[in-house]
Amino acid sequence: MSDEGRKAAYEQLRAAHLSAVRASLEDHVARLDWPRPRIERYRTERLRSLLAFARARSPFHAARMGGVDPATATVEDLARLPPMVKREAQEEWDAIVTTPGIDRAGAEQVLARQRWFSYTPAGHQVFSSGGSSGVRGVYVWDWEQFVTLACLAWRWQARAERAAGAGRRGARLAVLEAGEPPHASTPLFDVATGPLMETVVIPAGAPFDQVLRAVSDARPTHLVGYASVIGRLARAAIAGGLDIRPVRVSTNSEPLGEEDREAIGAAWGAPVHNLWGSTEIGVQAVGCGRGEGLHICEDEVIVERVDPDGRPVGPDEPAARTLATGLAGRTFPFIRYDLGDEVTLLPGDCACGSPMLRVADIAGRRDDDFRYGARTVPASAFRHVLGTDPLISEYQVRQTAGGADVLVVGSPDVSVVAAALVASLSPFGLPDPEISVRIVERIPRHASTGKLTRFVAL
Ligand SMILES: [Zn+2]
Q1: Centroid of ligand 1 to alpha carbon of 184 (angstroms)
Q2: Which SUPFAM superfamilies match (predicted)?
Q3: What is the Å distance from ligand 1's center to 358 Cα?
Q4: How many Å lie between the centroid of ligand 1 and the Cα of residue 344?
Q5: What pLDDT does residue 451 have?
């Protein structure tokens, strides 16, 4: 089949998928106002379903289920299962996946062959991401899971738009995400939530003057995209370099810094829906646009704050780790998955009226960004290249005076990687960055935490 033919076949299924999302949004918007007992009943049955299915179809999870009986399990029983970490999830892929039609090798083939997003014959989508731990991840989302995750990503906005009576007006959504495979961000956020909405995808990694021009030309009424890119657009608008009037702004993929949130408010005064997600779980929490923080998707995700030994801690106690169980992830179950983020619960009821619990804004990892004099190069400029190369399994970037020394584990063509990094860094104003890429056996981890430091600033 030609590239055109493949893309047309993708678009046909994609249209079917988006109609399914819009249909399910009705149910998902209603859930935001469910009373707590109803949320908890629903969640418990979903958890039992996931555990029973995982035990039956995933040797990895069956071996870890111990004495927990899925038929009677509760959220509290989850603490009896061991946490799951990224390296393990990626190394044990074939023992975790529950669908006979796909394994790690097949998923890698999909990634290697596709020139654009695609569906497998069974309706699965395969994604890859560098994530924040330095280990490359390969993920598979099934048809129903995508429908649920897209609803989680968009239901708060849909609820607010309905309350404002905005659904009957035309709208144009500018989508500032990766814009290409293998990242899940574009399919997840390029979603028209109503029949009168159109979308325009603008790759966020393009040189910023191009992004600025594309956004200006699109004249969007709504924005969604990487937090740092939306923040930069807001600053451009304040400086008079961008004239758009978005009425609603959604941010994701990166922590939303206070400076970006303030710039968005100053530029447009629009409600902001910040999203905390991961390719593993999909969407963990989303801001409602009214109250502080982000509402946990309590009906579809169980978030546990735990101590260093994986035991849940009280709402007021500090936690060492955050574990998440994605109730919609049946094809590749993530149960008590260590997200590597720290979250704080917010007390009290939200002004929006939803009883879904809230977490404070997720703390930034801005210390990963490199400063060269007055110029800042975000860690994502490296991450987009290093985190998605199938021949790179782990990496570390060490800042130098005029660029970076990059250590990689794997078997990439180092000259190709170096050239891609130079191209990725140049939009940030670094003249002629000096990049060296070296293949190493392993990258030493932090002596006490065992964590990989991926970005080492000068
Ligand atoms: Zn709220």
Answers
A1: 26
A2: Acetyl-CoA synthetase-like (SSF56801)
A3: 8
A4: 16
A5: 44
Local confidence band at 311 (pLDDT 50, 70, 90 cut-offs): very high
Residue 259 has a CB neighbour count (10 Å cut-off) of: 14
- Mean pLDDT for all residues in the chain: 91
For the ranges 54-63, 239-248, 325-334, 379-388, the lowest mean pLDDT is seen at 379-388
- Residue limits of CATH 3.40.50.12780 in the chain: 1-363
Q: 27 C-alpha vs ligand 1 centroid, how far in Å?
A: 18
Centre of ligand 1 from the C-alpha of residue 291, in Å: 5
10 Å Cβ neighbour count for 304? 19
The whole-number average pLDDT for the span 146-151 is: 98
Q: For 340-373, what is each residue's pLDDT tens digit?
A: 788 999 999 999 999 999 999 886 454 578 889 8
Q: How far is the CA of 173 from the centre of ligand 1 (A)?
A: 22
Distance (Å) from CA 289 to ligand 1 centroid: 7
- Predicted confidence (pLDDT) per residue in 197-226, tens digit: 999 999 987 878 899 999 999 999 999 998
Sequence ranges of the chain with CATH classification 3.30.300.30: 366-456
CATH number for 366-456 (one of 3.40.630.40, 3.30.300.30, 2.40.50.140, 3.90.1570.10): it is 3.30.300.30
Class of domain 1-363: alpha beta
Which pLDDT value is given to residue 157?
97
pLDDT of residue 449: 36
Find the mean pLDDT for residues 149-166: 94
195 pLDDT above the threshold of 70: yes
Ligand 1: centre distance to CA 175 (Å) = 24
Report the separation in Å between the CA atom of 353 and the middle of ligand 1, taken as the mean of its atom positions. 6
pLDDT for 450 equals 43
Q: How many residues does the chain have?
A: 458
